[in-house]
Amino acid sequence: MLRIAVQSKGRLYEETMFLLEEAGIKLNKAKRTLLLSAKDFPVEVLFLRDDDIPQSVANGVADVGIVGENEYVEKKQNAQLIKRLGFSKCRLSLAIPKDEDYRGLCWFQGKTIATSYPSILRTFLEKNAIKADLHVISGSVEIAPGIGLADAIFDIVSSGSTLISNQLKEVEVVMQSEALLIAGNKLTEDKKAILDELIFRFNAIQAAAGKKYILLNAPKDKLDEITEVLPGMKSPTVTPLAEEGWCSIQSVIEEKRFWEVIGKLKSLGAEGILVIPIEKMIL
Ligand code: PRP
Ligand code: ZN
């Protein structure tokens, strides 16, 4: 049995649950307890505050964890980074009241900064030779300047709407963050094998993200030009059609190039173009 620590609510919760579900880890969500075991897979999920996940993995309360890079870097716990998961992207930034005139980091000299990430901030300020007072609070950091508790804040920014609604502006991005899969250093062979299977499934999900399967009919004399537009995984699959001079092509395309590719295919005479979502991709 492999125990995975995940965030109980908030930024990471939804996307983590979605990833686990896609990976075939089905939880009995009817009873929302702290610890749930999965059906058909030797995994149990432990729900924690994100701040507590790095330590719980380091001390073995959980075997692995899915946590924001922000918490992983801040907490400096003895847990290893296994895989970047590519979701819950955000940044850790310095923000100041929006009407302040900002001309560079020296603005922060001698100021008070409210944050839940003192370690990351201290390192950054030291590197830039800025002396400031840190006011460490664990939540609602964004209201600190408004109530006179601090001159500025250092916090997570994602959409930026929290800053706007608190009349703050982002002036320095200190680090980027995304969800990470982390693991303890002393997993048994059994647990390692389960973790390997989990990584295999996560990779298949990530590989499929942003990709579409495409099927189309093409005139044979345009085959070379069309396959050039369709790089696919290796090379596209081409099958002859009953109709003389035509063939059917199957391939994989990047979603972000979708309209560009479709446009080129049409101009090369492709017909009956079918685009299908891909759930998993095992390379
Ligand atoms: C963060 C941060 C802000 C908000 C920023 O909190 O403290 O309140 O998100 O996001 P926005 O730019 O999209 O408005 P989070 O929900 O991660 O909770 P936590 O810091 O208490 O874990
Ligand atoms: Zn938190």
Structural description of this entry:
By secondary structure, the chain is an alpha+beta fold. The chain has three domains: 2-87 and 178-207, Periplasmic binding protein-like II (D-Maltodextrin-Binding Protein, domain 2); 90-176, D-Maltodextrin-Binding Protein, domain 2; 210-277, Alpha-Beta Plaits. 27% of the residues lie in helices and 34% in strands. It is built from eight helices and 16 strands. The chain has helices spanning 13-22, 53-58, 69-75, 118-127, 161-165, 189-208, 223-229, 258-267, and strands at residues 2-7, 26-27, 35-39, 43-48, 64-68, 80-84, 90-97, 112-115, 133-136, 152-157, 168-177, 179-183, 211-219, 237-240, 246-254, 271-277. A seven-stranded mixed sheet has the order 2-3-4-1-5-12-6. β2 and β3 form a beta hairpin. The longest helix has 20 residues, at 189-208. It binds 1-O-pyrophosphono-5-O-phosphono-alpha-D-ribofuranose and zinc ion. Residues 49-51 line the site of zinc ion.
Features:
D-Maltodextrin-Binding Protein, domain 2, five-stranded mixed β-sheet, 34% strand, 283 residues, binds 1-O-pyrophosphono-5-O-phosphono-alpha-D-ribofuranose, binds zinc ion, Alpha-Beta Plaits, globular, alpha+beta, 3 domains
